[in-house]
Amino acid sequence: MYRDDDLHPDDEKRRQYLVNSLSLGALSLAPFNLAQAAWWGSTPEQLPEHKSIFSLKGDVRVNGLAAHLDTRINPGDIVETGSDSEVVFVVGSDSFIMRSHSKMQIEGSGFFVDALRLITGGLLSVFGRRKQNQPLTMLSTTATIGIRGTGVYMETEPDLTYFCTCYGEVGLSSSNNLDDSEIISTKHHEEPKYISNKPVGGTHIRKAPFINHTDIELKLLEAIVGREVPFGIKTDLYKGERREY
Predict the structure, then answer these.
(1) Which of 78-109 are b and which e, b meaning 16 or more Cβ less than 10 Å from the residue's Cβ?
(2) Does 226 map to a domain?
(3) Per-residue pLDDT of the chain (245 residues; tens, 9 = 90+)
(4) Could you tell me if residue 204 is inside a domain?
(5) Domain limits at 222?
(6) What's the domain count of the chain?
(7) In-domain check, residue 24
(8) Is 245 inside a domain boundary?
(9) CATH no. for residue 197?
């Protein structure tokens, strides 16, 4: 699990850059201004339908092949990142930031994502609202999550998953015991959870701190699918994001 003191120096550099920019008011304008463009390489705005990737760095692969800005990502694909790598991309009405050392299988057909299987690593996601006949499930080594229109962050290891419902509602279950479950509804990161392979105190699900993702990243992800985060971004809120409760 990526803890604050285990972050790659480039990840910490990004977070400090965002904090400094926010403190100066540089990131308070909608949709975004040049401060963010300088970091991600272009101004965040809704991607055209023929584009999947907003930005990438390092070793990013789609179905085993090196990815570039014109690579399409569709249901059925496997996306991987290597060391010191990252990719920001869109599939349909959903968008993602995949961290370094991550691997995800996207399941579905046509333009519709049915499931996301995070095999390793970390993934920040925002999802368009689903119809009742278009459910979406996120899976990791220890967790099964039913997704509605929401923003979420997940990290996975062989015996432990970290999951934050940034906003919206999810149905969270242990993969080892589907009856061990919770319905989580949040407005702003109120209920991060660990889901472990073995139960602790009679449950696989327990409280967790808020770690390793930011409101600015969520704002970016909503912007590239033409939406906005459902909360204001203020300096005091941002400074509290990575504090362990």
Answers:
(1) ebbbeeebbbbbbbbbbbbbbbbbbbbbbbbe
(2) yes
(3) 654 444 445 555 554 544 444 334 334 433 444 445 444 555 678 999 999 999 999 999 999 999 999 999 999 999 999 999 999 999 999 999 999 999 999 998 777 789 999 999 999 999 988 777 677 999 999 999 999 879 999 999 999 999 999 999 999 999 999 999 999 999 999 999 999 999 999 999 999 999 999 999 999 999 999 999 988 765 433 333 332 22
(4) yes
(5) 4-240
(6) 1
(7) yes
(8) no
(9) 2.60.120.1440
